[in-house]
UniProtKB/TrEMBL annotation:
This is Cyanocobalamin reductase / alkylcobalamin dealkylase. Coiled coil: none annotated. It catalyses: apo-[alkylcobalamin reductase] + an R-cob(III)alamin + glutathione = cob(I)alamin-[alkylcobalamin reductase] + an S-substituted glutathione + H(+); apo-[alkylcobalamin reductase] + methylcob(III)alamin + glutathione = S-methyl glutathione + cob(I)alamin-[alkylcobalamin reductase] + H(+); apo-[alkylcobalamin reductase] + adenosylcob(III)alamin + glutathione = S-adenosylglutathione + cob(I)alamin-[alkylcobalamin reductase] + H(+); 2 cob(II)alamin-[cyanocobalamin reductase] + 2 hydrogen cyanide + NADP(+) = 2 cyanocob(III)alamin + 2 apo-[cyanocobalamin reductase] + NADPH + H(+). One of its GO terms (biological process) is cobalamin metabolic process. It comes from Campylorhamphus procurvoides. The keyword Cytoplasm applies. Belongs to the MMACHC family. Its EC number is 1.16.1.6, 2.5.1.151. Pfam families: MMACHC. Its cofactor is FAD; FMN.
Amino acid sequence: KVGWYNAVLQPAFHLPYPDDTLAFVVLSTPSMFDKALKPFVKKERLKIIRDPVDQCVSYHLSRVKEKFPDQRVDVMFDYEILPSRKPKFLAQTAAHVAGAAYYYQRKDVKHDPWGKKKIYGVCIHPKYGGWFAIRGLLLFPDIQVLSLEQPVPVDCVSTEEKRIELLEQFNFHWQDGRYRDIIEVKERYSEEQRIYFATPPAERFRLLGLTQ
């Protein structure tokens, strides 16, 4: 429910819908690269390509909208920002309140070792660890779900020591991706996918056989 999301955020970040409005958080799993992105790029080869991943997600979510011709479906993407430069929605908060992934933050550590340093939080999925992404939000403004029960996200990094290790790795060593394996995972990005996301955006076109 939109109300679960709005309840944990300051008014400036609230979604402008009634509390009982139905919403879905959209995640991409490690297999997205082979099952969705590569076929999409191959099919769309002759069209203008900006960011292939964003365009692929947009394409698939537009197809979801088409499945509900009699419903209003609003789509928000993780990369969209408002004129105020704020993101349209806070993806990690949305994933947490929907029970999709646990959003580990500084407040989840009792004995804080970082002093005045800025520490960013990170979502961990119970199956994929950090090998996933939050891509968007589907909102159904005409559907009110009064009796929907809020699922609790799986607290899979449950010890103080592991939480400190997770936030340390994510904030200070995120490039090496070790934080993604803070728990034992069922599936990881392929080597090809790791190389793709480790490559500067302007150079990714070449990896997909595209000219910019």
